[in-house]
């Protein structure tokens, strides 16, 4: 959720002063808890991302990734790195592509916040959804891998993966609408008419839930790592918003990119998809339905409205953290400026789904 150019989100940078960690304490913890670890360590910080600050740890033998909660006062249930660690720990033994988890530290005295360590997966980060440096056939394969991997996630036996209690029972969207309404209210800085209408309309029009699966919550092309030299996803990243729920949430969230302007990011609206070799939304939906054994999926507008509302809640949290001085990314301000667009887009999709002004 950043408006920064793709290049500004790729790679690492020197760790800013406000994000520095106690390297001696971290080294000591890794010696005690990370199998095969040998220091010394060298830290850098990944440029992309707004929510949980993420670091690269280089050692003479290998590289690791550290994800931590932000410093400072946080909203309840936000930045749940322990949940991230739990889901990748459950998925990794199944063969689903996630980074290998090495250890979770819940002791905030080590570096000032909860964190976990996982492997550094080598591969390609693709921030520009138009895939400008590829041929049409390559783009087709990249997008097929993206939807196939999502389908595989939704087909994963979460009970067998030890994740049977990873989410609450009942209607997923009912819980989610309630959760993001509370998150929005907790970080509200001004009244937005479209958001107020959505808070009234969404819980009154909930779709029925046909299936329950692991839901990633933030699945898009720039949250996966592709293998270095083939159209295969080597790791799905950023599991902070994952839970058990309705897989349609992930499907609609991914396909929302077909409705979103490109701007050098994951959005595809306005592009000549046929010429580029990128499957259109219908083709992606049909491929997903076939791989998961679902009936054809027709209308996504309610799900688009919900996802835009949820994004508005996330961005409102970023806006509040800017005001409080705890925003992690250098591009947080540009992201926060998207609030009016997100609110208007969410209400537009709600109207397409039948909402009355």
Please tell me about this protein's structure:
- The protein is of the alpha+beta class and 357 residues long.
- The protein has two domains: 114 residues, Phosphorylase Kinase, domain 1 (2-Layer Sandwich); 217 residues, Alpha-Beta Complex (Aminoglycoside 3'-phosphotransferase, Chain: A, domain 2).
- 37% of the residues lie in helices and 11% in strands.
- The protein has eleven helices and ten strands.
- Strand 3 and strand 4 form a beta hairpin.
- Helix 9 runs antiparallel to helix 11.
Short description:
The chain is an alpha+beta fold and 357 residues long. It has eleven helices and ten strands. Strands 1-2-3-4-6-5 form a six-stranded antiparallel β-sheet, with helices on both faces. A two-stranded antiparallel sheet has the order 7-10.
The number of strands is: 10
Task: Please give the alpha-carbon distance between the first and last residues.
Answer: 28 Å
Look at the helices and sheets and give the structural class. Answer: alpha+beta
Total DSSP helices? 11
Helical fraction equals 25-40%
- The CATH homologous superfamily of the largest domain is called Aminoglycoside phosphotransferase (APH), C-terminal lobe
Task: Provide the number of structural domains.
Answer: 2
Described by the principal axes of the CA atoms, the overall outline is globular
SSE layout and pairing:
Layout lengths: L11 E2 L9 H11 L8 E5 L7 E5 L4 E6 L12 H11 L9 E5 L9 E5 L16 H20 L16 H15 L6 H9 L11 E3 L8 E3 L6 E4 L6 E3 L2 H8 L17 H4 L4 H12 L8 H24 L7 H5 L2 H14 L5
Antiparallel strand pairs: 1-2, 2-3, 3-4, 4-6, 5-6, 7-10, 8-9
């Amino acid at each position: 959720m950043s408006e920064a150019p793709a290049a500004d989100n790729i790679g690492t940078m020197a760790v800013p002063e406000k994000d520095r960690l106690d390297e001696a304490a971290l080294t000591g913890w890794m010696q005690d808890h990370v199998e095969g670890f040998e220091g010394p360590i060298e830290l850098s910080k990944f440029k992309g991302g707004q929510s949980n600050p993420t670091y690269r740890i280089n050692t003479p033998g290998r590289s690791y990734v550290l994800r931590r909660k932000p410093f400072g006062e946080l909203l309840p249930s936000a930045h749940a790195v322990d949940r991230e660690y739990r889901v990748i720990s459950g998925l990794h033994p199944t063969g689903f592509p996630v980074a290998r988890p090495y250890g979770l530290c819940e002791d905030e005295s080590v570096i000032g916040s909860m964190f976990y360590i996982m492997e550094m997966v080598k591969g390609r980060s693709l921030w520009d959804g138009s895939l400008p440096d590829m041929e049409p056939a390559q783009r087709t394969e990249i997008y097929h891998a993206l939807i196939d991997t999502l389908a595989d996630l939704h087909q994963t036996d979460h009970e067998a993966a030890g994740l049977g209690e990873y989410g609450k029972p009942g209607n997923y969207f009912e819980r989610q609408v309630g959760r993001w309404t509370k998150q929005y209210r907790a970080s509200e800085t001004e009244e937005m008419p479209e958001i107020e209408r959505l808070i009234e309309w969404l819980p009154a029009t909930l779709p029925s839930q046909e299936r329950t699966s692991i839901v990633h919550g933030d699945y898009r092309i720039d949250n996966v790592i592709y293998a270095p030299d083939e159209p295969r996803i080597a790791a799905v990243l950023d599991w902070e918003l994952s839970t058990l729920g309705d897989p349609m949430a992930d499907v609609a969230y991914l396909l929302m990119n077909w409705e979103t302007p490109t701007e050098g990011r994951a959005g595809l609206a306005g592009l000549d998809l046929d010429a580029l070799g990128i499957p259109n939304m219908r083709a992606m939906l049909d491929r997903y339905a076939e791989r998961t054994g679902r009936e054809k999926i027709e209308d996504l507008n309610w799900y688009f409205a919900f996802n835009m509302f949820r994004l508005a809640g996330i961005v409102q949290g970023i806006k509040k953290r800017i005001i409080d001085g705890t925003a992690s990314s250098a591009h947080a301000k540009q992201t926060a400026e998207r609030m009016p667009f997100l609110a208007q887009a969410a209400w537009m999709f709600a109207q397409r789904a039948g909402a009355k002004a």
